[in-house]
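We modelled each protein-ligand pair independently. The example shown here corresponds to the zinc ion entry; the chain sequence is given first, followed by the ligand as SMILES.
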Amino acid sequence: MKLSLLACMLIAAGLNTAVVTAQQAEHAQAAVEQKHQHDHDHDHQDEHDHDDDDMPALGAHVHGHAVLTLVLEGNEMQLAFQSAAQSIVGFEHKPRTPEQKQEVAAAIEVFNQAQWFSFNTDANCELVMAEASTDLTEPQANKGHADFYANYQLLCQRPARLDELQLSIFSLVPALEHMDIQWIINGRQGASQAALSSSTVRF
Ligand SMILES: [Zn+2]
């Protein structure tokens, strides 16, 4: 009993020391920045709210970033694109103004037209399906982060010649800074990063 009570007190003392140290550091910082007193519980709550606003809701959701996966089996290619809406239209709430609605529609059009990527011509890949969507037009929009999605199917007449992907998306969508590309091409696989300054991916 005595030992465990002592242990509890030591742990409590240790925790108190840690808490006091953290609070003192916080106070020192607050004093420098704000020059007025803060209620600790209030501070704590503020920090949590702030963190929730800043943290991505999804694993792949990073502002300025997009993910593209490419799978080629035989001569059938599947492309799947996903990006934070922030990287595409610059906001992640439901479009309210006519301008915002137009921006979302224009972005969907860019993805449906599928002109933002191309392959080396001798692979002879032809688009057979394009389908773009966004969380921004879903009923649950405004509940945090939102994404754009685009899925494509292509047929490649000479899949063995496929060795290059050109990305023009960075000039079409300036808010998009970089993209992770993961690919599986008839058993071979790899990963690359692309940006405006390095927009060619070699397989
Ligand atoms: Zn976001």
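The beta strands are 65-73, 76-84, 117-119, 125-134, 147-156, 164-167, 178-185, 188-195, 200-202.
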